[in-house]
Amino acid sequence: MRKKLKKALTKERYEHTKGVMYTAAALAMAYEYDIQKAMIAGLLHDCCKCMSPEENISICDEHHVLLTQVEYDNPALIHAKAGSVYAQTNYGINDPEILHAIRVHTTGEPDMSLLDKILFVSDYIEPGRDKAANLTEIRRLAFSDINQCVAKILYDTLHFLNQKKGVIDPQTSITYEYYQQFMEVK
Asked: Among 55, 44, 58, which Cα is nearest to 94's?
């Protein structure tokens, strides 16, 4: 799986992928989740990231995966849905938990499973990431309160996108509305 993936990704994307895989394993250990499943989700989460938008759209169309107008307008978001299908068809992954975690790793969704949260957080905090605000605090939260960590990531992501006048996928806002309940009150 790793050899095949290494050929499909850029060097930088593959390094990020390894970081997510190992971070997911560490979080799985911390939260007593299946380490192997977390590592597979981490390894394959960006399996379509280096494909063209047209290829990602084609994968989704071929497998009847509905895309929103926001996704068509921002094709970088489509890799998660396409990746879920591609992990199944090209890497033989049939575990619905792994496939779902890959599918929601960019926007999240309300009431995510533990694996969904592990992948969502791992993608944000892996060791190669260094640009996000509050990264030290978020990394600490990842290992002490994963729900609060998800809420903080979503808050910071929405704040960042609002500041730069970026497009916000409505799913990210809906997810934040759900996870707001876990925000630490100061």
From this structure: 44
pTM: 0.96
* pLDDT recorded at residue 166: 77
Residues 6+ apart with CB under 8 A from 116: 100, 101, 104, 105, 108, 109
- C-beta separation of 3 from 97 below 8 A: no
**Residue 170: how many CB atoms within 10 A of its CB?**
10
**Spatial distance between the Cα atoms of 103 and 45, rounded to a whole number of angstroms:** 8
Q: Could you give the CA distance from residue 94 to residue 87 in angstroms, rounded to a whole number?
A: 8
Q: Residues 37-80: pLDDT tens digits?
A: 999 999 999 999 999 999 999 999 999 999 999 999 999 999 99
